[in-house]
Amino acid sequence: MSGPMAESTCMIHEPIDEERIVNYNPNLYFPTHPGQVLNARYQTITKLGWGFGSTVWLAEDLWQSGTRQPSSSVTPSIANEHEEEPKSPRYVAIKIGTSTSGSIAAAEHELKLSQHIATANPSHPGAGYIRCPINNFQLGGPHGTHICLVYNPMRETLDDFLWSRSQLPLRLPAEYPLSGPHFLSLQEASSPRT
Q: How does pLDDT run across 168-180, given as a tens digit for each residue?
């Protein structure tokens, strides 16, 4: 191989991202890499983040880009297989949980709460600040099952946004940071209990 790609290709021989977590176990994470197609639909582009219980990947929805059509090999959503799936954006963020029973239970709980929130009061001003999964599926990995939650991709965090624009005057409405939590507090009373 020659050309610009050959010169920029290199192997990383030291721990990166989640590999630096104390007690890191590679068997718990789904072995994902850029260009991999998940659930016959989502092609990973780059890792956006990671944590003790998951990694998050930017991916292209190949169904929306017209590259692929739905097939019978797609794993149905965990939630309700009879519900019509909402229209997905071309690019998505996929949270791939680890294969531990705690991560699986947490992902199932997150999905259940998100479904409740998604059907709550959509006219509340804070509803737009709460992200709910737009799809979900399971992946069978070499060491267990991984629950995947698909989200609309977000922009940078408010902290990163403010830091990157520290030279610009920025005035946020006083209610902006509290709109989402206020919305959630109103939903708490009618939240499903597990």
A: 555 555 545 555 5
